[in-house]
Amino acid sequence: MSGSDFVEMFVGVGASRVRDLFKQAKEKAPCIVFIDEIDAVGRARGKNVGFSSNDERENTLNQLLTEMDGFGTNSGVIILAATNRADILDKALMRAGRFDRQITIDLPELKDREAIFNVHLKKLKLDPALDTSFLAKQTPGFSGADIANVCNEAALIAARHNKKFVDRQDFLDAIDRIIGGLERKSKIIPPSEKRTIAFHEAGHATVSWFLPNANPLLKVTIIPRGKALGAAWYVPEERQIMTKEQMMDEMASLIGGRVAEEIINNKISSGALNDLERLTKMAYAMVAYYGMSDKVGNVSWYNFQEDGYQLSKPFSEKTAEMVDQETKVLIDKAHQMAKDVLESHMDGFKELANLLLEKEVIFAEDLERIYGPRVKETEIKEPAKDSPEDAGETEVHETADAEKQ
Ligand code: ZN
Fold first, then answer.
1. If you average pLDDT over residues 229-257, what whole number do you get?
2. What secondary structure letter does DSSP report for 298?
3. Architecture of the domain whose range is 191-400
4. Centroid of ligand 1 to alpha carbon of 6 (angstroms)
5. Tens digits of residue pLDDT in 376-387
6. Residue of 201, 237, 250, 261 with catalytic role
7. Which whole-number Å values give the CA distances from 29 to 66, 80, 82, in the listed order?
């Protein structure tokens, strides 16, 4: 069943459906009951006081809890439920004897993705030279549904080009499309704006190239795609924790686009919206969540209220001010780092931007040709077993579309 099947506007219907479900389960034992999207009924009680419709949901949840208690360990019924929001479930649901085992299903890792690709590729006519492990490597952070989507898109792209089978390029185009949205080659951008975008993206690329802890660059494009007018694509590092140095380098790369505009045009544009938004969040997180500011100290107010602490603001006005100041200090530092990099590699930076204007897409190889090999990460590598295969999504630094703002 789906969790929402229990939710009804009529009083008592949800609870009676729960009773009915468990009655059937007992009759049919041994059996498995699977409730999808359990959060529809299992949300924590008493959070939205004042909504009368909630009473009915609470009754349903109470009935569910009662019924689950009524099962002996040997009654031959296994109850499973799924949710994306385990954090908002009522704690009583997770007590012993109820849903007392949790299985976290993370995004698929390299080997998992390869296996998922193999499932979805069966239906397609493929280029015999196609390498599935290559596809798995190109899709870090993709869910199973995303991978299914890649296969479908790739087939559509191949068909549009009247190909007899789907080849590697079709898959690459499909992956780009899913990460960045549809390419809009027909979108008309005035030359002066195009130049700004090229320098902006070259700024991201150059800064990240010279900061050893930033994510390695994959390619840079100034072809409008989805909402973005240009983008620098990175291969996300396979890390689960980030050091302060990595975060600073990351922040400097983020602001690199804005700094490039300052240097080249002597004025700034709205194109850095997305960059600045991420930069601000990261800087605040460093100060208020990760304890990375000396002045504010080793404190974290992460998830304070959600965990039931009633303090509406667990810090004083003075501390709040200090958090703001320290955030600004970090952002200013990232700005300076980006500025230093760009100013000391002006020739290469300009060459890169012009190359980008000419070719519209450039790759890590082009940067290597201009700047020489990238400085390796200074961090000490952990033993292989501790480093998970991949973390997070493919990072894209976008220039926001001016017309959307
Ligand atoms: Zn940008």
1. 84
2. S
3. Up-down Bundle (1.20)
4. 46
5. 655 444 444 443
6. 201
7. 19, 15, 21
